[in-house]
Design goal:
48% strand, disordered C terminus, globular, Nuclear Transport Factor 2, Chain: A, three-stranded antiparallel β-sheet, alpha+beta
């Protein structure tokens, strides 16, 4: 039997599995904060609010872009890792600033590793419309997030065609 217990005085919710003696703590507030972070990530990118979008990343964040998604694996990793918040913004902006984009993230799998680190996997779909062309991608978006001074940020992002865990 699986039961959920929530208390108003604590920031965690416990999931108690009666068949064993294990109690799992789920940091609901942190998971919700990471979902909001991802929602803002998509909204700020789609509205081209590059200052706000960049503010979602740590200063030393990294980005891996997997081109195999659009080449069916023929070119598995041709883009180098982009390092640093400003470089990530410049890199992404150079590809989508003149495009109409719509990003959707679904079915998040968020794992809180420590009180200040988490990783997530999101089913993701995006539409990128540029004059004369439309790109529709369906990928797994992998992220590593960190909490600094009570605020969650993106430390690493990887659009991957497979569900490899984030670094």
């Amino acid at each position: 039997m699986l039961t959920w217990k929530a208390t108003r005085s604590k920031k965690t919710t416990s999931c108690d599995r009666r068949s064993g003696s294990q109690t799992y703590k789920i940091q609901v507030d942190d998971i919700e904060a990471i979902k909001i972070l991802k929602g803002r990530y998509f909204r700020f990118m789609d509205t081209k609010d590059w200052t706000a979008w960049g503010g979602l990343f740590t200063a030393d964040a990294t980005l891996d872009a997997d081109t195999a998604v659009s080449t069916r694996g023929a070119d598995p990793k041709s883009m180098p890792t982009v390092r640093g918040r400003n470089e990530i913004v410049s890199f992404v902006r150079s590809f989508v600033d003149e495009c109409i984009t719509v990003h959707h993230g679904h079915t998040p799998e968020i794992e809180i590793i420590t009180p200040t680190s988490a990783k997530g996997i999101w089913a993701m779909e995006d539409i990128v419309d540029k004059v004369g062309a439309r790109l529709l991608r369906r990928v797994r978006s992998l992220s590593r997030n960190v909490s600094q001074r009570g605020r969650w940020s993106v430390a690493h992002r990887d659009s991957a065609s497979s569900a490899n865990p984030p670094r």
